[in-house]
Amino acid sequence: MMKDTPQILDNLIWLRQVKHCWTDRNAVSSLWAEQNGNVSVPYEIDSVIENRTEDILDALNMISEKTCIRFHPHNNETDYLHFIYADGCASYVGCRGGEQPLLTGPKCTVGNICHEIFHSLGFYHEHSRYDRGDHITVLDENIVSGKEGNFLKKKGNTLGLKYDLDSILHYGSNYFSRNGQPTIQPKESNITIGQRTHLSDLDVQRIRKLYHCDETKSGSS
């Protein structure tokens, strides 16, 4: 059983504690540990959402087919992802240690689930980067009251990669709008943000750099 109750913040659950996972001081957050030269994350799908198994596996495959991260069914490991039922979609950021819930609601698409798995691997939202001002404008006056925290800048390593408007981790233009007007406006014209259909090239690079994929046996191109 989990020893604390996570603070759910819409698409994100903030990491409160880390017990057993590997911490890289230059990483975005605490990482899943490497074992025998590979990173393979144990997972369990709760029986209540067994009907979402195909979607969850598709989301895991979106990551594993392009990176060195692998996923395998939980088998007595201390640290593991536990896909559970909830109204929405949410995840801790990074490996927290022990049973780690990943909330999977009925409306979570494959892309939404993949987005949350990215959080569990140690990544914050792209629009929370400190250099976002060069690429987007956050329109605070249009944000639903109480949701302003979803748009705050967060400290984290950008891994030397440029800002990515196409990232699966980026919010869309009208997320949490109180009046139908944009909450995020790209400075570049004719740009759509907030896609949940694919990993961008920079999404792939981000995982490969954080988990040193090019230094592991299973790193793929």
From TrEMBL:
Keyword set includes GTP-binding: no
Residues annotated as catalytic: E116
Annotated CDD domains: ZnMc_astacin_like (cd04280)
GO biological process terms held by the UniProt record: proteolysis
Residues holding Zn(2+): H115, H119, H125
EC numbers on record: 3.4.24.-
Keywords recorded for this protein, A-Z: Hydrolase, Metal-binding, Metalloprotease, Protease, Zinc
Cofactor requirements of the protein: Zn(2+)
Gene Ontology MF terms: metalloendopeptidase activity; zinc ion binding
Top EC class of this enzyme: hydrolase
Segments forming domain Peptidase M12A: 26-214
A Pfam family recorded for this sequence: Astacin
Annotated cofactor note: Binds 1 zinc ion per subunit.
Signal sequence annotation: none
Entry-linked InterPro entries: Astacin-like_dom, MetalloPept_cat_dom_sf, Peptidase_M12A, Peptidase_Metallo
Protein name (Swiss-Prot/TrEMBL): Metalloendopeptidase
Taxonomic path: Eukaryota, Metazoa, Chordata, Craniata, Vertebrata
Name of the gene this protein is made from: LOC113071558
